[in-house]
Amino acid sequence: MDIVFVSVTNFLCGLALAPLLNGVINRTKAFFAGRAGAPLFQLYFDLFKLLRKGAVYGKTASWVFRVAPLVGLAGLITALALLPFGGAPALISFPGDIFLFAYLLGLARFFMVIGALDTGSSFEGMGASREVLFSALAEPVFLLGLAAIARETANLSLSGMFEGLAIDAWLHSGPALALVAAALFFVYLAENCRIPVDDPNTHLELTMIHEVMALDYSGPDFAAVLYGAALKLWLTGAVLIRIILPIHSGNFWIDAMVSLAGMFVLAALVGVVESIMARLRLLKIPQILLGAGTLTVLALFLVLR
Length: 305
Description:
This protein is mainly α and 305 residues long. It has one domain (3-304). Helices cover 71% and strands 0% of the residues. It has 10 helices and no strands. It has helices at 3-33, 42-51, 63-81, 97-118, 122-153, 158-164, 167-191, 219-244, 252-276, 285-304. Helix 5 packs parallel to helix 10 and helix 8 crosses helix 9.
């Protein structure tokens, strides 16, 4: 099968299916709560509705506030082009692209933060400061986890790293991979503002982190924020799933279906976690992220020995 075709298919699959992960999470939570819940494709409906509306801007907001969601979304779409999925190479691949991938995620967060600060609202400034604090703890964990995989596969490209990972890797480096997977699961929850780190459905001023930064957005701008959050859920989940399920059957469609099933299972697991756990106190979150960082450092020592 043509490599360009499978790479483009991989890219379009992420663009089309990323919002579906939110539907799986919400349906899982509804099941545990014993209610019908929103439709599986609710986020798609919300995005289409928001795109048909107009945007409202405050008097204190400048051009920074207006371009922030667009620049963040552009960064996440570019990161998606760097990400291999289901055994297919990425649309864009070169040595060292793991650093660009991580920095594109950071770029999206940076513009969300300065967009929130540009409103002049102390409330949004509070959420931005919390976002920066937790990202300063989560990003090193993410990079150290990727560094451990890069050392294990002797490759600095995401496509090369994921191609070098196989089931055999779990036989001789199982403990290190398990530590990386556990640490990246905590990062997955933190980066996507899920319980126990943050509650995406909260409306309590003292507990909001990510959601408070998007309060002033409306219409197409808010649609870009929601779609960007769905893409980030897909990006971070795809990295984690590839570490847990390094399947290489030789058939792109089989590998893609296995990876896609893993993504939906991971989303369902997030729904289970949010159904059986409460949100932790803010003071506990740095401790969890520091613990995840310790796991990645230990994993890096294991692959270096």
